Amino acid sequence: MASEGSEKSVVAVRPDPLHGADPLLAPGQTLGSVTEKISSIVIGKGNTTPGWIFGAFISFCLLMLLNTVITLLAIKGVGIWGINIPVAWGFAITNFVWWIGIGHAGTLISAFLLLLHQKWRTSINRFAEAMTIFAVMCAGMFPLLHMGRPWLFYYLLPYPNPMWLWPQFRSPLVWDVFAVSTYFTVSLLFWFVGLIPDMATLRDRATSRIKKLVYGIGSMGWRGSASHWARYEFASILLAGLATPLVVSVHTVVSFDFTIAIVPGWHSTIFPPYFVAGAIYSGFAMVLTLAIPLRKYYHLEKMVTERHLDIMAKVMLATGIIVAYSYVMEMFMAFYSANQYERAQFVERMTGQYAFVFWTLITFNLVLPQFLWWRKVRRHELALFLISLVINIGMWLERFVIIVVSLHHEYEPSKWFMFFPTRWDWATFAGTIGMFFLLFYLFIRFLPMISIVEMRTLVHETSETGPHTSLYPVPPEA
Amino acid sequence: MKSDSMNGDSKPKSLPNDSVDLNVARTNLDKMGKKRLWQSLEELSDTKLHRDFKENEFPARYKDSDGINRRDVLKLMAASAAMAGLSACTKLPQEKIVPYVRPPEEIVPGVPLFYATSIPESGGAVGLLVESHMGRPTKIEGNPGHPGSLGATDAIQQASILNMYDPDRAQTIRYDGNLSSWTEFVAAMSNVRGRHIGDGAGIRILTTTVTSPTLGSQLKTLLAQFSGAKWHQYEPTGGHSARAGAQMAFGRPVNAAYQFDQADVIVSLDADFLQTGSGHVRYIHDFASRRALPDGPSSNLNRLYVVESMATITGAMSDHRLPLRSSDIEAFTRQLATAVGVAAAPSQAAANIPVDWLKAVADDLTAHRGSSLVIAGETQPPIVHAIAHAMNAALGNVGKTVVYTESIEAEPVDQMASIKDLVNDLNADKVDFLLILGGNPVYDAPVDLDFLSALIKAKLRVYSGLYFNETSEWCHWEVPATHYLESWSDTRAYDGTAGVVQPLIAPLYDSHSEHEIVAILSGQPGVSSHDLVQNYWQGQRTEKGKAFDDFWELTLYQGYVTGSAFPSVNAALQSDFLKQAPASAGEAGALEVVFLSDPTVGDGLYNNNAWLQELPKPISRLAWDNAAFVSPNTAQKMGINTQDYVELDLNGRKVSAPVFVTFGHADNSVTIHFGYGRLRTGSVGTGAGFNAYLLRTSSAPSFATGLQISKTGKNYPLACVQHQYTIDYEGQKTDKESLAAVEQRDLVQIATLDEFRKNPTFAKHDDTTENKTLSLYPNYKYDGYAWALSIDLNRCVGCNACVIACQAENNIAVVGKDQTMRGRIMHWIRIDTYFRGDLENPEAYFEPLPCMQCENAPCEYVCPVGATTHSPEGLNDMTYNRCVGTRYCSNNCPWKVRRFNFYLYSDWDTKSLYGVRNPDVTVRSRGVMEKCTYCVQRIQEAKIRTTRENRTIQDGEIVTACQQVCPADAIVFGNINDPNSRVSKLKAQQRDYILMSDLNTRPRTSYLARVRNPNPAIRT
What we know:
The structure holds 2 protein chains of 2 kinds.
Chain A: H1 4-8, H2 31-43, H3 50-76, H4 91-115, H5 122-145, H6 172-205, H7 209-219, H8 226-259, H9 271-297, H10 306-336, H11 340-351, H12 355-367, H13 375-378, H14 381-408, H15 423-446, H16 452-464
Chain B: H1 22-32, H2 41-45, H3 48-55, H4 70-82, E1 113-119, E2 126-133, E3 136-142, H5 155-165, E4 174-175, E5 178-179, H6 182-196, E6 203-207, H7 213-225, E7 230-233, H8 240-250, E8 255-258, E9 265-269, H9 280-289, E10 303-308, H10 313-317, E11 320-323, H11 329-339, H12 355-367, E12 372-376, H13 382-394, E13 402-405, H14 415-427, E14 433-437, H15 441-444, H16 451-455, E15 460-465, E16 477-480, E17 489-492, E18 498-501, H17 514-521, H18 529-540, H19 546-558, E19 592-596, H20 610-614, E20 622-623, E21 628-630, H21 632-638, E22 644-650, E23 653-661, E24 669-673, E25 703-705, E26 707-715, E27 719-720, H22 731-744, E28 750-752, H23 753-758, H24 768-771, E29 787-792, H25 801-809, H26 816-821, E30 830-836, E31 843-849, H27 858-862, E32 868-870, E33 876-878, H28 888-891, E34 899-900, E35 929-930, H29 936-948, H30 961-965, E36 971-975, H31 982-987, E37 992-993, E38 1005-1008, E39 1010-1012
Parallel strand pairs in B: 6-7, 6-14, 9-10, 9-12, 10-11, 14-15, 15-16, 19-24, 21-23, 28-39, 29-38
Antiparallel strand pairs in B: 1-2, 2-3, 4-5, 4-16, 8-13, 17-18, 19-25, 20-27, 22-23, 22-26, 29-36, 30-31, 32-33, 34-35, 37-38
């Protein structure tokens, strides 16, 4: 790859004394080496590797499948999906909640942990944030696509009109509109502000005219002056402060879509914290799903170290336990409340026609992640990758169980009816996965996937803590 | 949907020689793969016969010869009605028709007129009032003055209007498959007349059952002119056993009219008198009137015992039901007769007749002399009918609960003998000219007669019917018949009351009535149906001149001839039939097959009616198909399950059918329904079901034993709208669970009469009153009207009429079998069916479920755009224009009464269907939620009218479509702000309850609990 030159001038960074032999940054990183390593992935020669092309092409094909589905939806209507009465929400809303949940990890890492001065976030926050934005983009499409008449989506917005018609503000779907659009806007701004100094770095290192121009525009005239840095820091903290409550609020509002309704299995006060925990759970799983192959492929093990994997696995374990507790409490309350509808709902979940989905979900979300109690598993790339995949699937199934299984077995026994997904249900889901990954492929190819600025700061900080404080290469001791 | 190809090829008029080759059939079957369904060996072996059927499957649409197409006719109709007083140059009929309510000079665009007419049915006509918008009939309602209707109709009568607008109807006159014209047809018929004048030995006329006095008289006149001519009648279903039973009992085919309102104890022997047969609409009314409990616990109920093989709505309404194979019912009848004191010949012992049960029934009957009633069903042989007459006589019921009159048929004949006679004559080459008026004998004649082979031996064959079908296919002349809404005729009701059929619209196509065709043959070409009918009645009445005109006008106005019901006759019971030895019930253990007319598509006439095809059949809730119905026990024993595709083999005659395991069916018996498996029908009926006629012979027209069932290993998906069929899949658990849930959830409140008397408020949920104070906010005050609905579950017989009435009134789309299977049926009111008890003979309960119009509506607060809102009158309104289709409201509706247009379900392309739509109701587009509105258009109409008249709406002034049609009078709509309204009084009854009151949604629709009246002598 790159940075052969910098490797020669070795070593100033001492191991992080707080963490002994288990650093957040592998020994031997310098300001120059991290800058070189990260930026070379973007502007170095020969980076459009066959692997990248292959992955991007597959994702592109899936995106085209999504286009096909959307065209078909526009022509024929939502009937192409398997939804019916009573199961009027199917894959679309399941996917919406799933994607929105995935986004949460990025915001948590970039904003919440920034405020808490968690240094380990540095090397993963950029792509986690990108993941957030792409996931919210995928999520945001579903409420539009699932509408019977999507061309009238603006009825949900409070725009002035001669008939004085407003959205119906008691409906959680209107709250969703505000929650999700706010979330997307803040996340995008936060991400972009963080990118400005890095774009400037890329601008300065770019060799071609076009790259200079594009990154130049992206860097918005950044010159690295003290006032730029001051404003940059201020804006980052401000946006982090804005984004942090969104980590909690967005999925809380999404959970209101269900709790506000009187559907047995939806109508529950436990949903907001349970949904937030679940969102972070699935979000971290997705970060790991992306990070493990990335660090392997682009040889970033020195920046995204085993310790990062370990910490993220611990976060998953913790949120997973909250989720498990929520499941148990949900079931307990169904029985404890003596509400016959709730009881019937949970008996149905466990023993009904969708029981296999429920038990798969329990296995994936509650049982298999218990392996994370072992440090070895947490630091084993393959094991962790598989567990993260399993949690991603499990969390999708959780939303499926909440939405479809609850609806198919509601109050009126004469309208207990199964939902069977059609090929277009799967195609829509696969299509958004394609869109997500294509955006991600473009991101890792054209933008620094790790924040150069923050890595430099980390290099600086970790080296400062040692006795031989030096930001510069020193000759090896004799 | 449509086939616009011109198909002018002439068709073969003789049977092709290429007969079925089994080897070819097998090879073709292999080629088709496993998924394709096939219907017949002819199809598989690809004979020319079948190819011809297939090519003509979609009737070609011809343009009218004078250049006016359907659309122009519709336009003309609308325009001409508006300009009726101004212009005479339109296609308006020249005859005088009289509106029922308001005179035509007051025609106001947008304000409908109602005309009285009758729908002719072989069992007796039902009087109708037909709503007409600008000369375009849109909705059928019952005629309150007509004894066969009393304001109600059944589902089929409701849906019959769709047949008139059916784009697949016969449209042009054809000769030899080519376009022809009425003029040419008249010439050809006159030629026939000329050739045969004198003896007419080669002339045969085949009709369905004729109840029209005019047509009957025309045919008799014709026969008088042609001494050698013969008139045959054949209809596959109808009152054949009843006629023969009366013949057996009384020596002549008298007509039995029952008075269910007089009967305290009723015993039905395989008689589904609430669903089919003569007078059933009236019978529902009379029966339900005795279930109403008007005085609460102090009122009395009648008691109904039903012995039947397949669970029907009559069985569901019974207090005691005994599932018994149809072939065992004769033995039961004989034993019952003996027990009530009729000395019938002893029957063979039938092991499965419970002696205690029979004795209790007999005791109950004898305890109610003069107020009991025994009624035998059409599936039973004549002897059962005759013994039932004998029992009624012995019990002193004659003249009280059963009245005998002359037959309402113009010429009652044994129709099976009649068609056999015709086939014999055809095979003996005696027939020169065969005129078939309606019916479809090639499809529905007994299979052993091989009607088609006989038919083509007639030298000139003429078919006239509403549709071109399997029979017209083989006729030289195909003449479109008028729909009853397009032509003049007359009818007789179940009690003989004569009614006039007056047209609502000029024929949409080049159609002509039976009267006109018969008139040509009898030498009166060019005489209109109107004149023929009027002339007939002029001959019948004593009034002349102006007095007759007054009579005629009154008759048209009210739709029937006052006082024309037949007087009762004194029918003397004969006794020799009682000595007749019982028929052998077939070998014990042999599987029985029972043939029934389908509860939705009838005997096949309504096969192309999309409303009826999509109407879930009572009990089974199956749409779009017929099936082989078996009991759970039999299914288990044979290792078959719902949706298995099996081959039914009756003495070598085979047909493949899907299995449907149904509750309450007699064991060791299979029921199959007619009306499906048509080879030549319209786009709706094509491919639906299998043809049960292929197993029916003239010797065993109702049931036969010796059926063999073999599995094909294939699966046939069925569209069932309620999960009753889960009996086979994920098994009985679901059903038990749903049974438990129904009881826990107070969906159907049930008590026996004794329990009701002990605890009159058994239906009330404890926290109903408390719930009203649960909110922090004060209740909304409904100042003006507060609309509400009350549904009496004790009256409702589950006949489905309300479902179709709602569909017709509210322009509800049809979605097709595939979408029905996907759970997207659009009916705004549905008849939920719940069962209680064991699978072999459970009690069945019907619950019509329209929108509950909750005051705390869960659907309203979740709509993000405010498309569903509460009206100040308590209605849960739906604004289609505002709806964006998030479907959240449906998710949050506990009753799931909201319906969503997942696709563009409304047919916006077929122009002829525009005519049937109600102009007061939006035709919904795709992506929009819809639901029951309590017929808000009718409410608005009344409000506008009464506001103009400066008064308030009176109770009963607004009737919803479901209320209007209900023969049982189970649905009552009104204003609960008026304590004296009918609905307020019903809601004040102790039986009143609301569904799932613990949800605190406070529905405006409430129910009156079901009260059964079991016989204490029978242990349940």
